[in-house]
Amino acid sequence: MRKLTEDEKFMKAALAQARKAEKLDEAPIGCVITYEGRIIARGYNRRNTDKNTLSHAEMNAIKKASKKLGDWRLEGCTIYITLEPCQMCAGAIVQARITRAVIGSMNSKAGCAGSVLNVLEMPEFNHQVEVTRGVLQEECSQMLSEFFRGLRARKKLVAVCAPSEPVSEEIWRKREFGL
């Protein structure tokens, strides 16, 4: 068995954060921020739970990392994200002066680290982020695909059920997986 690289090790930690989001029925996106080879902040998607547009994994982790280091500048930090950041999060990563971003899965519909836009490496800004893409890509992509496949199945089941019949998680699991 091959030994994990440092990037893979920290991406596994980001995946653990994504699983926390999934348990809340949130899109499973996770993030960790490291400084000097140690995790200093963790975050996961909580938009629906917090009812807050800003509650993305990256935003939650950046806030914690800034508090931990006592500065809004996160120079020397690396952010590990299971899904390519959106425009808001990519902008926050640049604004926080994060040195490096490691991305698991790219997001062809809304990604701003090379897919739709590349906010992280724009020479027009006063700070550019070093980007590494595709770390544990298969694992990150699979987690998201499975989540959204299940979400579509639940929505379909709700549409099929009579309005008077509430669809609990237990009913859905029995019908979907025979559990």
Indicate the proportion of strand residues.
15-25%
Instruction: Note the main sheet.
Output: 5 strands, mixed
Lateral arrangement of strands in the main beta sheet: 2-1-3-4-5
Which spans of ≥5 residues are poorly predicted at pLDDT below 50? none
Estimate percent helicity. Answer: 40-55%
Q: What would the average pLDDT be, to the nearest integer?
A: 91
Quickly count the helices.
Answer: 6
Quaternary structure of the protein: single chain
Short structural description:
This protein is α/β, with parallel strands linked by helices.
List the helices and strands and how they pair.
Elements: H1 6-23, E1 30-35, E2 38-44, H2 47-50, H3 57-69, E3 77-83, H4 87-95, E4 100-105, E5 130-133, H5 137-160, H6 169-177
Parallel strand pairs: 3-4, 4-5
Antiparallel strand pairs: 1-2, 1-3
Describe the structure.
The protein is an alpha/beta fold. 43% of the residues lie in helices and 17% in strands. It is built from 6 helices and 5 strands, in the order H-E-E-H-H-E-H-E-E-H-H. It has helices at residues 6-23, 47-50, 57-69, 87-95, 137-160, 169-177; strands at residues 30-35, 38-44, 77-83, 100-105, 130-133. A 5-stranded mixed β-sheet has the order 2-1-3-4-5. Helix 4 links the parallel strand 3 and strand 4 (100-105). The chain is globular and about 55 Å long. The mean pLDDT is 91.
Provide keyphrases for this structure.
five-stranded mixed β-sheet; 17% strand
